[in-house]
């Protein structure tokens, strides 16, 4: 019988995610599977929770990985904290802000959005204006908008949202591990991330955190959380306390992988990890500029881990990506929505934020172009 896994190509993953998995994480994934209530595994859960708290800089008691990808984190963030009729403001400047709007609308939220041009950041004065016009229960923003390569100014938005008395939800799927994420200093109430970007772990879990104010909102709900699987009020009984009540079977080996990935980040040190991402980004931008290529995003708002590069006139962007893959075994990403055909997205995330990787993609691009 042929084994379809015998001949997997080794591709350098420099798209918008997944990024390449770190060797220590692959090793962790292959450790013996334990029972989900085994005391040794419960110890690993506790350590994983502490590591998420460290990497996201929070003391939030409700901090754990949601079983599912980043979008499961997004669903968890909305389904637990808004009820039908609640007023929700989404700050939208890319695919993931648009997805948040869809998620919140499906839950019966009264959803408004302030929309910004894709490739530009959220403008803080526009948020202030929107918050002065109307009272919101929850305001949501994507920290690192992977679809455009833009960093949104969460540290400036957060105090406005707090002053307006709303809960602040932050998507950190792409930012966690690659740039500073400081939940408690921001005053963020709801946060989720993903494993497959700057944590250098395969996709499958969504590190999640909720503040005391968010938990109080959950406890004060008038209606039942409409999704059984993602209902935090039940899940926390498995992740906390002495009892460890079964909710669903935890993805044991993925939790080993996440634990190893977070341990890697903490061992390197948060500042060093972030500086490594910034250095890789600067090296890439300098190299691209030497080749005459332009970045989509203005310097102050560029993400270090996701680089949006403008496709030059007359170049077939899909053909370039295809040749990078087949001839150089490098995957880069295409533009989405209004940016389809207009940009390439080059991710330098986690294990791939390294000088040799940047040299390799620059060399390959040069030869293909
Ligand atoms: C900013 C952001 N939010 C949410 C998601 C959704 O995560 P997933 O595809 O893991 O479900 C992504 C995925 O790329 C993302 O980049």
Give a topology summary.
Elements: E1 12-14, H1 23-29, H2 39-55, E2 62-67, H3 70-79, E3 87-92, H4 95-106, E4 110-115, H5 124-133, E5 138-142, E6 144-145, E7 150-151, H6 154-163, E8 167-171, H7 183-186, E9 190-192, E10 205-210, H8 212-219, H9 232-239, H10 252-268, H11 270-290, E11 306-310, H12 317-328, E12 330-334, E13 343-347, H13 355-368
Parallel strand pairs: 1-12, 3-4, 3-5, 5-8, 8-9
Antiparallel strand pairs: 2-10, 6-7, 9-10, 11-13, 12-13
The structure holds pyridoxal-5'-phosphate.
The site of pyridoxal-5'-phosphate (PLP) has 14 residues, from helix 3.
**Principal-axis shape:** globular
CATH class of the largest domain: Alpha Beta
Number of strands: 13
Strand content: 15-25%
Which cofactor or ligand species appear? pyridoxal-5'-phosphate
**Low-confidence stretches at least 5 residues in length (pLDDT < 50)?**
none
The CATH architecture of the largest domain: 3-Layer(aba) Sandwich
SS content category: alpha/beta
Task: Give the biggest sheet.
Answer: 7 strands, mixed
How many helices in DSSP terms? 13
Could you estimate the helical fraction of the residues in percent?
40-55%
CATH fold-level assignment of the largest domain: Aspartate Aminotransferase, domain 2
The CATH homology group name of the largest domain:
Type I PLP-dependent aspartate aminotransferase-like (Major domain)
Distance between the termini: 42 Å
Instruction: Please tell me the overall pLDDT.
Output: 97
> What is the helix/strand order?
EHHEHEHEHEEEHEHEEHHHHEHEEH
Over the alpha carbons, how many angstroms does the gyration radius reach?
21 Å
Number of domains: 2
Biggest sheet: strand arrangement: 2-10-9-8-5-3-4
